[in-house]
Inverse folding.
């Protein structure tokens, strides 16, 4: 433990010295009587044993939680000697909130006494955290010295993004040959009715449409759209983010990516992940509940660290971006490099849908007329980027504060139903 | 304490004592309002100096109220430091305030006895011989040396 003298020690010593020296110099005994209480307290305080003996143990009940969910954190304070005043402060990383016992807490402990403080630690933002750091401050009985120590028993806590269940999704242009829940645009064996055509040898009898055959005086069969799975690549633009105390565009992007991954994997599709920004990370497309866990784990490490390196999709291995995959880009469209990547993906023929996580609500207007003008120009520039994407046939929808992700996806889907693809 | 200083000050030293006392009052208010702990130390210095000026200004007779003034000064300082310590929000164990008050009162009582003894020894009726004077000086020097020695011992311990 590190010892620090309190302000009181210095002040009282100075007062006692002033009083006693003044009494000696002036021959006034009243000064001795005046500073006597200070002298008595100093004497008692300095004669008591020095270093207190105390230990702190922190136990985190679980290492995984979803945003908003509490995890029990027990703090055990044990005194090896009588401790007159012990203050325990649990360090809480930004993004977590501590509920339960007050923090800090002041206690008085007898020799050998153990006190347990029960807290619940709750994540307000997804991420990887280290929980278990505390500060212990012991004051002596006369508050002349304080002893401080830092207890570091950090254990990892993974706070997963709280994902909402989505009903509607963006349908891919192409599908894979394996079975799934996506209705393919091609015709074949399936449930979804596609068309009627004349019977050809080899067609199954149960596919004959008897009503149409009776009208046409020949055998006609029903064609159907087969149910197939598809490859989805979630593309996170982490070149830049807009942040306010209430949240950031990256927070929203990660929550949206989690919801999309969960929903697509639920439909037996393969989901991959690319994070392109200050650092480039990818996860090859996979399927199943275990893969959802991998996707979410990869998302937890997402951050928009500043970088001047101009990265393009040329760095991404081809197997990470399957040729017929639907690429859903989650981007704030703040960085020129991120915007260029969208155009590059489109130019390479990928089926691209862009969800623009709007930073407009997080932007603060500058002061005066110039500030207002700058904000308007910035908004116009963003609209121009969107218009350029739309002209090229890239489905883009703006996700503003307070709007459900499902509504944004529906907007993307509606655009894709009517848009015409343009190369370039 | 400010009132005591102002009430007792006479003659030429009055303006200085009054100024010191008023300054101390303002500084104490400021220190408590802004939780500035070093300010309390300066307040103590100002009040002790003001009291010294009062003693120098008045006719030469022992002030019997000195232990009470000392106790008041000590209580003021302790309560001021306590108030500042409590500023950060923290749950206090129930027994802490009572235990601290007991400590403060115990110190005050012990100091009152000590102060009264010092005044009795130095009162005009007492036999103020050279031996007693020498013993008083030696006690004063020894007290300061003891405090400085204890401080030095604490500084040299491995906890620093």
């Amino acid at each position: 433990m590190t010892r620090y003298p309190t302000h009181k020690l210095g002040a009282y010593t100075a007062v006692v010295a002033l009083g006693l020296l003044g009494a000696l110099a002036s021959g006034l005994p009243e000064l001795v009587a005046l500073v006597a209480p200070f002298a008595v307290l100093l004497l008692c305080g300095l004669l008591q044993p020095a270093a207190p003996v105390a230990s702190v143990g922190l136990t985190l009940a679980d290492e995984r939680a979803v945003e908003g969910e509490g995890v029990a954190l027990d703090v055990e304070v044990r005194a090896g000697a009588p401790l007159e005043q012990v203050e325990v402060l649990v360090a809480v990383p930004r993004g977590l909130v501590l509920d339960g016992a007050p923090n800090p807490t002041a206690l008085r402990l007898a020799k050998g006494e153990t006190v347990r403080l029960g807290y619940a630690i709750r994540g307000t933002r997804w991420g990887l955290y280290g929980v278990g750091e505390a500060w212990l401050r012991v004051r002596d009985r006369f508050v002349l010295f304080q002893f401080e120590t830092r207890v570091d028993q950090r254990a990892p806590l993974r706070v997963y993004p709280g994902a909402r269940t989505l009903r509607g999704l963006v349908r891919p242009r192409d599908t894979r040959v394996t079975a799934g829940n996506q209705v393919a645009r091609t015709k074949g064996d399936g449930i979804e009715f596609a068309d009627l055509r004349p019977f050809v040898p080899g067609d199954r009898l149960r596919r004959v449409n008897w009503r149409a055959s009776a009208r046409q005086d020949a055998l006609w069969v029903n064609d159907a759209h087969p149910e197939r799975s598809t490859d989805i690549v979630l593309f996170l633009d982490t070149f830049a983010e807009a942040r306010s105390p209430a949240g950031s565009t990256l927070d929203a992007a990660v929550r949206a990516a989690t919801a999309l991954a969960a929903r697509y994997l639920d439909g037996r599709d393969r989901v991959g992940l690319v994070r392109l920004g200050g650092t480039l990370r990818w996860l090859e497309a996979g399927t199943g509940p275990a893969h959802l866990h991998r996707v979410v784990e990869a998302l937890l490490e997402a951050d928009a660290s500043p970088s001047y390196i101009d990265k393009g999709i040329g760095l991404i291995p081809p197997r990470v971006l399957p040729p017929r995959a639907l690429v859903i880009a989650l981007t704030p469209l703040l960085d020129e490099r991120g915007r260029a990547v969208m155009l590059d993906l489109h130019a390479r023929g990928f089926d691209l849908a862009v969800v623009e996580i709007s930073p407009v609500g997080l932007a603060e207007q500058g002061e005066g007329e110039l500030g207002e003008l700058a904000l308007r120009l910035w908004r116009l520039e963003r609209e121009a980027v969107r218009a350029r994407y739309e002209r090229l046939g890239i489905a883009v929808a703006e996700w503003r504060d307070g709007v459900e992700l499902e509504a944004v996806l529906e907007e993307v889907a509606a655009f894709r139903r009517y848009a015409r693809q343009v190369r370039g | 304490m400010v009132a005591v200083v102002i009430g007792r000050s006479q003659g030429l030293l009055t303006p200085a004592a009054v100024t010191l006392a008023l300054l101390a009052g303002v500084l104490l208010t400021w220190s408590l309002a802004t939780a500035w702990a070093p300010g309390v130390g300066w307040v103590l210095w100002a009040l002790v100096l003001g009291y010294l000026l009062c003693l120098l200004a008045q006719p030469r007779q022992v002030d019997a109220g000195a232990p009470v003034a000392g106790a008041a000064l000590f209580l003021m300082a302790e309560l001021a430091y306590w108030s500042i310590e409590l500023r950060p929000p923290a749950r206090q164990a129930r027994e802490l305030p009572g235990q601290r008050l007991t400590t403060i009162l115990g110190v005050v009582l012990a100091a009152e006895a000590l102060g009264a003894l010092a005044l009795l020894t130095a009162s005009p009726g007492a036999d103020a011989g050279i031996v007693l004077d020498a013993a008083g000086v030696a006690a004063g020097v020894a007290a300061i040396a003891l405090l400085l020695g204890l401080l030095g011992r604490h500084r040299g311990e491995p906890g620093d």
